[in-house]
Amino acid sequence: MKITIRKSDFDRIYEHALKERPDEACGLVAGIDREDGVREIRKVYLLTNIDHTNEHFSIDPKEHLKAVKDMRAEGLKPLGNWHSHPETPSRPSEEDKRLANDPHATYFILSLAEKDNPVLNAFHVEGEQESRNVRKEELLILGEED
Amino acid sequence: MKITVGGEKKDVTDDITVAALIEQEQVETPQYVTVSVNEEFIKSGTFETHVLKEGDEIEFLYFMGGGAY
């Protein structure tokens, strides 16, 4: 699946993740699934990691609920989440795979291993918890002119 | 009775439980779903016994978490 996200939303994620370091930062993404098969991210939510560590994240469930209601009010669909890896690459860890419970979600991972060279990737995860399949998606970061 | 599920009004049988609603709504991967009723999250161990009331607002969410390693 091809996924698009605006550069301004990428920047918001990056800035929030930098601010939250050394802890992992996290949030949700919302948008639409277009008829041409492109998943278009139109809004990102910067939420609280209630674990407050550099090794784990759990999105605050009350903020999660509030964000879902906001998406609904704006006519957007919940499309997945994002989180940062402050020190490790942009790929799902074993824990990420184990906890990727929504087969329709896109999971974005922003690596800050090189703080001035952030790497954002998007993944699809499906299958049973013990044997998850991971697929890296095609991600386009759109400039203001796109 | 009338309840709201994921923002949509629904007619359901009186005394329906959360577990029965999950089945009725054909919630995918129900073993991983978390449920809020009137903005309060309920424990998964009580899905079978939690009886819904007229006007309840229910949301099905998936826990979102992970780790770096």
Number of domains of chain B: 1
Q: Which CATH class of chain B is shown?
A: Alpha Beta
Order of strands, main sheet of chain A, comes to 8-7-6-5-2-3-1-9
Name the CATH superfamily assignment of chain B: Beta-grasp domain
Mind summarizing the main beta sheet of chain A?
8 strands, mixed
Calculate Rg of chain B over CA atoms.
Answer: 13 Å
Q: How would you write the strand order of the largest sheet of chain B?
A: 2-1-5-3-4
Tell me the layout of helices and strands.
The complex is a heterodimer of chains A (146) and B (69).
Chain A: E1 2-6, H1 7-20, E2 26-33, E3 38-47, E4 56-58, H2 61-73, E5 77-85, H3 94-98, E6 106-111, E7 119-126, E8 133-136, E9 138-142
Chain B: E1 2-5, E2 8-11, H1 18-24, E3 33-37, E4 40-42, E5 57-62, E6 65-67
Parallel strand pairs in B: 1-5
Antiparallel strand pairs in B: 1-2, 3-4, 3-5
